Amino acid sequence: MLTIHAPSVGDAVVVEGALVAAIGPYPELVAAYPGARVRRWPGVLLPGLVNPYGAELLERAYHPDPREASALGTEPILSPDFPVDEARRGGSARRGVQRLLAHGVVAVSGELRSRVVVEAVRRSGLGVLPGSVPSGTPSLGAGVALPPLRVGGAARFAVFDGDVCVVTVLDGRLVYRAR
Questions:
Q1: For tag attachment on the chain, is the N or C end more exposed, with fewer CB atoms within 10 Å?
Q2: In total, how many domains does the chain have?
Q3: What is the model's pTM?
C-alpha cells in the first residue's frame, strides 16, 4: 500500500512497502499518487537517528518495567552492579528499544552480544551499524542523523515537532507514534 507521510514543514515522502517511492512537495505527490493513504504529521521529516550508545543502553543498562517505577524509577539504570537475569534482560531490551524509537532512533551502533538483546533489536527492525561506543554518558536521545532519504532507499525516518519525536518509521512500518 502506498502511503504519503506529509510533515507540516518540508517535503513529503511516498512509501511503498519498505522503500521510498518519491520525495517532494505534498501537493505534487498527492496529485501523482491519488490512491495513496495520507498521514499528516506536525513538524519536519528527517532520515532518523543512529544512537552511538545503543549497544551499551540495551545490553548494560536496565530499563525498569513500569510496575517497578516506585522502587526503581523510570530512567535506565546504568550500574554494572545491578543484578539482571536473562528474562529481565529481555524485557529490559524490549523496553529500551521502544524508548529509542520514541527518540527517533532508527539504528544503533556497536556490537550486540546478548542473545535476548539481538532478538529484541531484530524483531523491532532497528538497524545495527558497526562502530565503537564513544566516551561520555549514554543517552537515549543521543544521535546522529542518517544521510538524506533517497528514492529507492529504505523508508527509515522520523518526524520531529521541535525536540519531540512524533513518529518513527522503520522499513515502511510505523513503529512509534506519540500519543
A1: C
A2: 2
A3: 0.91
User: b/e for 122-161, b at 16 or more Cβ within 10 A?
Assistant: eebbbbbeebebeeeebebebbeebeebeeeebbbbbbbb
Could you report the per-residue pLDDT of 131-140, keeping only the tens digit for each? 776 777 787 7
Residue 18: how many CB atoms within 10 A of its CB?
15
Give yes or no: residues 58 and 121 share one domain.
yes
Residue 100: band (very low, low, confident or very high) from pLDDT cuts 50, 70, 90: very high
Does residue 143 fall inside a structural domain? no
Residues 170 and 118 grouped into a single domain: no
pLDDT band, residue 82 (cuts 50/70/90) = confident
